[in-house]
Protein 1
Amino acid sequence: MKTKLSQKDFELLNTGRIEVDTSNPEYSYLFPNFDASESGVERDYVEAHIFDTSENFIENIIVDKKLITKDNNNKIIIKTGTLLRRAGYDRGRYIVKYNFLRKLAGDTTPILIDKDGLQFNEPIDTSANGTVTIESDGRIFTKTEVPKELFLKDNKYFLHEISDSRKEVRLVTQQIKNDKYLRDFFNLQKETKLIGSFGNEKSHLEFIDPTNAANNSDANSNTLKFIAPTAEPFRKNIIGGAIEIPNAFITRFEARSQLDDSTLGGGPDEEFYDSEDTSIFIPSFLLNLDSDKTETGTILANRDDNKFAKIKSKIIPGTSLQVFSRTRPTPSTEILRSMSTDMEGRATTLQRIMHSSLPNTNNTNRAFLDSAFGKFTIKTVKNKKITLSSNSTLRDVGRTYRWTIGGYERNRKHKTTLGVKHSYYWSYTQLTKSNVTIEPHAEGGVNGLSFQGDASQAKDLVITINNNGCFLDISLEIELEEGSRFTESIFLPRAISTKASNVK
């Protein structure tokens, strides 16, 4: 079978095909709609290959755009009979195969260059008063005071090398010093491209209202138009791509939380990655209710709040708490953490929060957290496996998780006189690893009541509470990138508890 390629090139290239699903949105930028109209800016065209009935290649020609139409269903129609007659095939039977092509670089039209590689850009006119003359031997000269010889060159690039895998080719340019020729070649290997009109003060981006909707000013639009009188137009293959605006100005920050959208109810069902806005990070975790994560029958109360939405709504800056029958502003996370570790303390911070001297001896840090958050705790059964899973809004980067458990164990005690029990009271002790068992990953990472690891190791925290009367304060800290330290965290006081100890 004949082709317009050399036999060597044909054998090198004819090594199989890689099929790409053109309907896949991932590749939509590669396959914008074909446009061979005379006004089309995509430089799309159709190449017709003519064969005899034995499929021997005869020649190829570029289809005149006037012979190409589209019906209402966007179906392309080509007048093959007219095409053959114009090409001089008035009689006989032929096979015509069409290639639908898009010019990325080069062109099917030859160009004239001088000995220095500079393109002759004037109209080709061989008349008496024209721009060039053609000698009897075929040589071409300019009609200037000092005639300059011109050389006819294909507006193409050389196939210099093909990789051993046959998946890559190396192209090289000819000795043609033309800006467009060289720029198109350069852009072939670029994934991103700058389109602009540098140095032109009239070039800019502006917001427009393409719908011209009533009472909708351009200032409120999210549609951008590029104004560049001297720049080349945008091409369709940028549809589905991304636009980057460097050196933009931040005018304000908006606080975001997992509860901004009531449908979240304490966050999504699992972690997700915000690829569009990598500046937003929302740390969060939930009690995983999957049967293989948390044992059946473990939760006794507040099962419908496994995302801890009620507690999360109370720790948002600017909110308030009901504490000791008073409404008081929510302390910072740092203060809440200190209250958890210093249970019996009555620091001046607590007094400032309450706006009182707190004469009642029961008004301790522990009591404060109990009063503010104890009613929202998820009550569970001891000695059953519980899994906490991160459902944070994360940047899709390498990250490290660190879980820390605090809180206390409450036991009912009494005094005994002459064998008679009396004066019952509650005893409070800080949680230890004897109260809560953390199930380690195969690679370890457990240190007392702290557990640390990467996403494959510590995205989930598996624990067993070994005693009744335990109240757990849980912290999740996340290091977004190696070396960035644990800058993102969430702390939920009184998140989980086991039922009260029996009176003994």
Protein 2
Amino acid sequence: MGYSSESTGIYDRHLSKHDEVTAQSEFSSWVDGEQYTTANSQPIQDPVIDQPIVDIPKCDVRDVDLAVDTAWTAFETRWEDTTASDRSARLFEWADTLKDHQDELVTLECLDCGKPLSQARGEVEGAIETIEFYASVCRAQRGSEIPAQKDLHLYTTQEPYGVVGQIVPWNYPLWAATWKLGPALAAGNACILKPSLETPLSTIRAAQLSQGIFPDGVLNVITGSGSDVGRAVAEHEEVRKVSFTGSTQVGRSVMHSAADRVAPVTMELGGKSPFIVFPDADLDKVVTAVADGIFYSTGEICDALSRALVHESIVDEFTSRFVDAAESYVLGDPLSEETTMGPLTSQSQFKTVTNYIETGRKEATLLCGGGKPDNAALSDGWYVEPTVFAEVTNEMTIAREEIFGPVQTIMTFEDYDEAIELANDTQYGLASGIGTESTSLVHQTADDLDAGLVYVNEYGPILPDAPYGGFKQSGFGKDLGLEALDHYQRQKSVYVNLDEPSL
């Protein structure tokens, strides 16, 4: 296992960064174009040193009511009648402003989530790219004319819902927020966004940086717990649409709340994604892809490729190379350029992951990892070594349940049919991967995999141009792409009688 050469001064460095970011801005909810505080607050912990960064408001149902009322006022008086070109210009301006503060946002992601610098940069860049994409495509929206009959002019129009609610997770806070805010604002909606109570800082700051760009009250961020604020958003009668990203368990609750009032929802939920490694796979490429698919962002990824299904003829070579790849990660301070893996985001997630690892020790064969790194400089953080289990079967707990940490399971298959059966034998269907040099096998496998996303000989690219979302209990509806823009609009059919008027 590699370790950062920078083994001292982490604690002081992080405390200094805490002072720096809190001096740049106050972190509160954002309602009606200004900071919004409440009597109750909660500290946001730095997962590297387990020390508070800043306290943020812990809002409740009354605060959600206020934000919704504010959003409706803004929508009806200052936003509903804006043109697509106007919204496009404002979104581009917001993206440019985020670029101007990119380093600040990257630092917040490192402190708040424990992401290494390179990964935090990628997330912030992805967030900006998402906003730019929707700034571009919102001007290209069109209705349609339907040639029904000679004396009838029949056409369709697209219109916003009004006020929409959005709930985003703790693992990709800023990027996930833009996946929802981008299309919703482009479509002409006003937004109530609830970030995770564990990692809200970059999202709060991004909202603050929208001041003067969008009319006050169009973009609102309400901080608080899922049980209070999240539920209030999902249940609110005046929130006309809900978009949720998070666990399948919580998604069911959100969906139930919205269903009670017949509100439309989109759901991006959990995953237990397979990567099939066929005998002809280029292991130089595929080992890297599978490692990235489970160890990137410390495995706290909904589309993590956590089940490696490897043909029995190459499993020994694959496993040997994969263990080497796992042990090459450098665990250290996320603020160091040398670090390639940071801590888990919270103490609760650390406990969850380590409990799954203990279960895995009883079920399968542990090849590497399985504990905290032997580095005193990291002892205060929620670090878990890259962990690999072999001799796994698909009935084991570690193969069935979403761990959300850097834990890989290796299983074998004998032939194509068994590979597909194993890959699809899960309640989830978010992502999948294929390792092969055969073009025909790529297309056949992609067609047979029951998942919304397929990676071939790689892992990682997520572009705003393409829809993102899963099948089965991984959710329904899509983030990103033009499809997300459609989700934030209602379609209206207009029938115009063209009969000759009678005088």
Protein 3
Amino acid sequence: MPTNQNSINLAGDILGDILIVDDETANLKLLEELLIREGYQVRPADLPQLAIDSALAQPPALILLDVRMPEMDGFEVCRRLKQDERTRDIPVIFVSALQDVQDKVRGFETGGIDFITKPFQEEEVLARVRTHLTLRNMQLNLEEMVAKRTAEAIERGERFRATFEQAAVGVAHVSPDGKFLRLNQKFCDIIGYTHEELIDLTFQDITHPDDLDTDLEYVRQVLEGEIENYSMDKRYYRKDGSIVWTNLTVSLVTATDDNPKYFVSVIKDITERKQAEQKILEYQQRLKALASQLTIAEETERRRIAADLHDHVGQTLALIRLQIASVRERISDPGQTEMLDEISESLRQTVQETRDLIYDLSPPQLNEIGLSAAILEWLEEHVEKRYEIKTECISNGPEQQLDENLRSILFRNTRELVINVIKHSHATQVKIRVLQDHNHMEILVKDNGIGFDAGAVSLSLNGESSFGLFSIKERMADMGGSLEIVSEPGQGTKAIINVPVDKKKD
């Protein structure tokens, strides 16, 4: 692994050489100071071509790339970097004030892996940088490990083949009742017994009990002619009591009268592969935990911003409208009253837009009235009053206390599903069912719209609708849940959210 790309300090933090590309000096300086303070090596670049030249000359571990720049936008910079073998695998995070879904889709299509929206939060920047450097570091480590193990396996195979035929794998002839008849040295080496010791044993004697029944069932099927051969991953007990993982392949040799003579058993030591698989599983679990933490952090920040907008901005705007109304009552000049009316109307629209933004983030009353009630309130206020769509939201019983992060995520996902219905389904009716028990919740969003062939459409990044569904699916996966889409042309669509729930900890 190149030392100029990634390293790990004593605290376990992933450090790296990060290229920051932004034509705005203030943004460039802010990101540079933030990352340097966290211990990262930083290369700033204020021109697109300068950034490309710098990356090609010395590939960084990660690139933070602004979208809107003179001469060449960030999408084109990313496209050119992904075309060069030297920079193709460098993770690129776009930093942009753009909110349009199509722009984000374009960013992913050019090779970007993530977006950070301006104005950004320091915690978000650090979390995303850390996550993607961690992913890249794991990828490089796995590639190095695979290359090393492959080289070692090739070397061993060549060495053993030079001294003994079939030394690369273990081979044994085994009688139908399980006794070892003939073995090569490689087999003995893998199992950890001498040839003489194994001749006095059966394969049943050294097979791990959890694998024995499966092995014996395969033997029965071969002897009865149901199958010709079989292969399985199997554990043996070595002479020293340790366990060795092998890949076992078995076929039957028969006499001229078709009576069984012996089995040919070929084994390959796959202990290292099993250990690598376990490490990969552990890495996946760590990444899932990181993703979940990032989702929770995002929801926490959304609630904070929504609360600030509700408690401060919204209240201030409402107070200003009251003050304008009070002043208007004391003014008789028609021109002045007309101007005050226009200002009041603009404030009214701003208040409504602020309320919409609060609902988009996380409505503060969600924790006060509960998930089902909040969904119903939003449907009545923001759907039925604005669109000719009949709505319904029912629950199967009293709502249990949910973790506030999960409650916010479920509300936002349900809201996004309904907005998706409004934009794309041409539906006249939307029904929502909130079903729950002590440890599980299901939210069903059903419409009577035009529907589509769900079997032919995956939750990929194809279009605004699919991108929204993909985001919901990923968000649910981070929380251990799922999103299922059921639809047929002309039959409407059902979106089903399933998620495990824990009671809110007081």
